Amino acid sequence: MRIGDTVALSFLISIEGVNDGGLKKLVFHSDKGSKYGSDIMKSHYKRTEVNPSMVKHGKMHMLNP
């Protein structure tokens, strides 16, 4: 299993059981690792409507999936 696969699986497990209305209110914050901004993660963010954010130059940066 690759690191990117582990990140995606961890993300999906972490939101399991959260209702759709709750997902729209979640912010998934991570470091600026490329695996968190990968195409597979962007598709998960978009599908679930979870709001991704990353640290960019010491400041929080919201992504647009």
Overall shape: globular
Separation, N- and C-terminal Cα atoms: 24 Å
Percent strand equals 15-25%
Instruction: Give the radius of gyration.
Output: 11 Å
Largest sheet: 3 strands, mixed
The tally of structural domains comes to 1
List segments where confidence is low: pLDDT < 50 over at least 5 consecutive residues. none
Structural class: alpha+beta
Tally of extended strands? 3
Share of helical residues: 40-55%
Kindly report the average pLDDT value.
79
Question: How are the strands of the biggest sheet laid out side by side?
Answer: 1-2-3
One letter per element, helices H and strands E, the order comes to HHEHEE
Note the quaternary state here: single chain
Count of separate DSSP helical elements: 3
